[in-house]
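Re: [ENG-882] Designed sequences occasionally contain unexpected residues at chain ends

Forwarding the minimal case from QA. Structure tokens:
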């Protein structure tokens, strides 16, 4: 596809069927008019978006040179972008079960509810 964004004769423009609208990437323009994308999360820049993502915010210059942003979806205009949502932390649960207990060095007891089917000496671990 040519730079103007319009397909050539016989070329079809196929949008992503499942594009994710993201606030992380912002569409901006260089001084000479080339479009690039700014990642607000890690402050990186790219000439193209990751596959399957669609920007929510587009940055434009006002007549006095200040940058404002407008939302492609809602057409809302702002001077300052809303803060990004903090990524949700997922707690990793420790492994459970008799083998996990043995690997942690715990000894099975009568009250633990852990049944040992193998003698500890018969459990082999291969470490690299």
């Amino acid at each position: 596809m040519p730079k103007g964004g319009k397909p050539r004769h016989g070329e079809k423009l196929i949008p992503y069927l499942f594009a994710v609208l993201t606030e992380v990437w912002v569409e901006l323009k260089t001084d000479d008019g080339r479009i690039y994308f700014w990642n607000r999360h890690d402050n990186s820049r790219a000439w193209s978006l990751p596959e399957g993502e669609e920007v929510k915010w587009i940055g434009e210059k006002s007549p006095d040179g200040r940058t404002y942003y407008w939302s492609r979806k809602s057409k809302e205009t702002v001077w300052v972008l809303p803060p990004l949502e903090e990524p949700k932390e997922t707690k990793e649960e420790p492994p459970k079960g008799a083998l996990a207990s043995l690997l942690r060095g715990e000894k099975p007891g009568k009250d633990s509810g852990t049944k040992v089917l193998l003698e500890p000496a018969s459990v082999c671990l291969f470490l690299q």
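QA comment: On inspection the terminal residues look reasonable. The beta strands are 20-29, 35-39, 45-46, 53-61, 67-71, 77-78. Proposing we downgrade this to a documentation issue.
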